[in-house]
Design a protein that fits this description.
The chain is α+β, with helices and mostly antiparallel strands. It has 9 helices and 37 strands. The chain has 4 domains: 17-94, Sandwich (Immunoglobulin-like); 103-416, TIM Barrel, CATH 3.20.20; 425-432 and 575-656, Sandwich (Immunoglobulin-like), CATH 2.60.40.1180; 437-573, Galactose-binding domain-like (Jelly Rolls).
Length: 661
């Protein structure tokens, strides 16, 4: 019998039995965490069925866990390096599982193995802050608020790293693993299972192999400076020993926790774009691409439960890195959350949703945090992604009473029909009757490359943002000028004389100098000297313009970047920001009546909808209060539409064909 081969993967099943863990004291040589020296597996046998599972070492014994599509009594055999171990015969009995379902892909959405749609909704929970709520307490509170998703990192500073003990002074022998971390993971995963929270198991984070961004390379045991074997962090992705140790960790995770239905996915890396091999040495990016392909294939080959595999994020990095991932996990910290997330590219061949987002410019207060959650929630849904965007700052959940907000949003999600209508697409709609308003636009990208420089307003800012413009206005003399190769030009046709308002929000420590031109003529300029650090400012520029066609140009001729916060043009807005998903029988919208509701009649035209009678649910975005009614759609139009609030979500469900009088 040859066991040193790929595992036979279990078939997908709607009903699982188990899990049951078997313990055995075995004689092995050398490092029990090195699968090349000690390949230990268990075979579970019953008439007509045979399941092989990887074994793992812990607390002096070997263990193997089985969940299976078939219940009943199994005989258990252990093999070490392909040889059957002597000892007494062991039997176990698998009973029906109560642990929930595994998550699978379903086109550009997700589903549970039972067939029910799964919409991930939650917040990150990467590590536990000192003195903060434990994982057990926080995931229970997440569940009470209707949440079902999170991300958790294998990091050192709260005892979850396989290679780095929490105390940096403690050293492990090369290749050995940190057993206290595994016991902590046992507890965390048990808490997630009890509360039906699915999570992305983040196996590596960027700081481990970065010298510039959240760097942990100086303390990494694989660094030659610490007695390791890697002279440079870029070598991690190609070094044979590093790959072997990495696969040992992936194998251990699959063996010990792969049976858990709370593991939504193995996330190979958090924000791999920040590792030195991508950020400092882009010529080595090919190694990062090849590593993702190799490790993705490896973990799939040993995982009998078919967990999804992903990695993050996709900011400013060659998308080939993520070609072999089951779904995409962009992260976003933009100046204006709602339009920026709406602008994320959505692939047609697999799911995507924003795995991290947060507030970029403002000082965070309770109202700011709750507004961010609402914007991330609605933008994630209306962008055509697989679920809401997921907030990063889990420490704010208690500080700002965010679970009250989450509970409202989870109820809206359940009542919105989003989960049951996967065939919807982002759709342009026409809304008439809004009150004229000022137009305020913000850049749609944080740090990144501006790809569009000439904009016609208000048409190019329909969601209140310039989605292809970075907030970092790069200097003509900066080495980052390639990120913004020419000035930003805003063209607009004013119905009367007015005054444009431009707000600058931050200056780089090297300084900068903004130049504002109106119709080719210098209108305002200001320079900022170098300082000891990047610093926040609130600098307003007021630029008068005349009725008719105008062009406002924004450029930087200083030493380094300045941040553009917003541009406001009086009376150029049409009073409503409308965003919509639709099929021919369902629609989900967000209508933001920025000029106020007023009393004038309103119409909403959704061309995709077929005629007939619809149930309409209107949700106040701020309070969650719902208003239900029945309306008629004729030629895609809702005539005499009545807003329920100045910021509302609207779901339309087709009931039957339009009645003929």
């Amino acid at each position: 019998m040859i066991l040193n081969c790929l595992l036979t993967l279990a078939p997908l099943a709607a009903q699982w039995f188990g899990p049951v863990t078997v313990d055995r004291t075995l004689t092995t040589k050398g490092n029990p965490f090195d699968s090349t020296a000690n390949d230990v597996r268990a075979i579970f046998i019953q008439p007509g069925h045979r399941h092989e599972r990887l074994a793992y070492f812990g607390n002096g014994k070997w263990h193997a866990t089985l969940s299976a599509p078939e219940g009943g009594r199994y005989q258990v055999q252990f093999y070490v390096n392909g040889k059957l171990t002597p000892g007494e015969t062991t039997f176990i009995t698998l009973r029906p599982s109560s642990d929930g379902d595994f998550v699978r892909r379903d086109g550009h959405r997700f589903k549970l193995e039972s067939g029910k749609p799964y919409v991930p909704f939650g917040h990150n929970l990467a590590w536990q802050y000192g003195g903060a709520a434990s994982y057990g307490v926080q995931v229970a509170d997440m569940a009470k608020a209707g949440l079902n998703w999170t991300r958790i990192w294998a990091n050192r500073w709260d005892t979850k790293s396989p290679f780095l003990p929490q105390d940096p002074a403690k050293k492990l022998e090369l290749g050995w693993m940190n057993e206290p971390a595994f016991e902590r993971w046992d507890s965390i995963i048990s808490d997630c299972e009890k509360n039906n929270i699915k999570f992305q198991f983040v196996l590596f984070h960027h700081g481990l192999f970065s010298t510039t961004t959240d760097p942990n390379w100086e303390e990494h045991p694989w660094n030659v400076a610490n007695g390791g074997f890697l002279a440079d962090p870029t070598d991690y992705f190609v070094n044979v020993t590093a790959k072997r140790l990495t696969k040992n960790w992936l194998r251990y995770a699959v063996a010990r926790w792969g049976h858990s239905t709370s593991v939504m996915a193995w996330e190979l890396f958090n924000e791999v774009q920040w590792v030195d091999a991508a950020r400092k040495h882009p010529e080595r990016l090919k190694d990062v691409i090849a590593w993702h392909r190799e490790m993705g294939e490896y973990v799939r080959s040993i995982d009998p439960y078919h967990h999804l595999v992903t990695s993050s994020s996709s900011e400013e990095i060659n998308p080939e890195v993520f070609d072999t991932m089951d779904y995409l996990q962009p992260h976003n910290y933009p100046p204006n959350i709602f339009p920026a997330i709406l602008a994320n590219p959505v692939p047609k061949d697999r799911p995507t949703f924003v795995g991290e987002f947060g507030v970029h410019f403002e000082t965070v207060t309770e109202p700011v945090a709750k507004r961010a959650l609402r914007d991330g929630f609605w933008a994630g849904l209306l962008s055509g992604e697989a679920g809401p965007a997921q907030y990063w700052y889990w420490d704010e959940a208690y500080k700002y009473h965010l679970y009250d907000e989450y509970l409202r949003e989870s109820k809206v999600l359940a009542r919105s029909g989003f989960a049951q209508n996967a065939d919807v697409k982002p759709t342009s709609i026409k809304v008439m009757g809004g009150l004229p308003s000022d137009l305020t636009v913000t850049p749609g990208i944080g740090w990144g490359t501006t790809t569009k420089f000439v904009h016609s307003l208000p048409a190019d800012a329909s969601n209140g943002s310039l989605p292809q413009v970075s907030s970092f206005i790069q200097s003509v003399g900066s080495h980052n000028r390639n990120l913004m190769s020419e000035p930003i030009r805003l063209r607009f046709n004013a119905s009367e004389d007015g005054v444009a308002r431009i707000v600058i929000g931050e200056i780089s420590k090297a300084g900068g100098a903004i130049e504002l031109k109106l119709n080719g003529q210098m209108a305002a300029t200001q320079a900022w000297k170098a300082a000891t650090a990047d610093h926040t400012v609130v600098q307003e520029f007021l630029i008068p313009y005349s009725k008719g066609q105008n062009e406002l140009s924004i450029d930087n001729v200083g030493e380094d970047w300045v941040k553009l916060k917003a541009v406001t043009l009086p009376k150029l807005g049409d009073g409503v920001i409308s965003t919509c998903l639709a099929s021919n029988s369902y629609s989900l919208m967000r209508l933001q009546w920025v000029g106020g509701i007023g009393t004038q009649p309103k119409t909403v035209t959704i061309p995709a909808l077929k005629d007939g009678e619809y149930e309409m649910r209107q949700f106040d975005v701020q309070t969650g209060v719902e208003k239900d009614s029945v309306i008629e759609v004729s030629n895609g139009q809702i005539a005499d539409y009545h807003p329920a609030s100045t910021d509302e979500g609207v779901a339309l469900f087709w009931r039957n064909a339009r009645k003929v009088e």
